[in-house]
Amino acid sequence: xxxxxxxxxxxxxxxxxxxxxxxxxxxxxxxxxxxxxxxxxxxxxxxxxxxxxxxxxxxxxxxxxxxxxxxxxxxxxxxxxxxxxxxxxxxxxxxxxxxxxxxxxxxxxxxxxxxx
Length: 116
Prior knowledge:
Order of helices and strands: EEHHHHH
Strand order of the largest sheet: 1-2
Helix content: 55-70%
């Protein structure tokens, strides 16, 4: 599992990327991470939540816990926090898969569109 720490909703939480993240995302959205749609805000929120779930589910036996909820992400987070958390999760995905460059076709298209 690749891990990192983010600050969101006024709290510091850990995120992790591994198969558990992908399974949690699928459970939340009913779709594979490979079908992630950057234009769908639900996908963004649930990818972040999946990464939080994966980390803390793996670390639960060590007594680590968090109080972050999807409702808090929806109502209490700041846009820049969501953007940073999302970027962090994508970076973890890249590391986990050993990839370089953007981790999703949608992200790649967005970066290229911004350059024109």
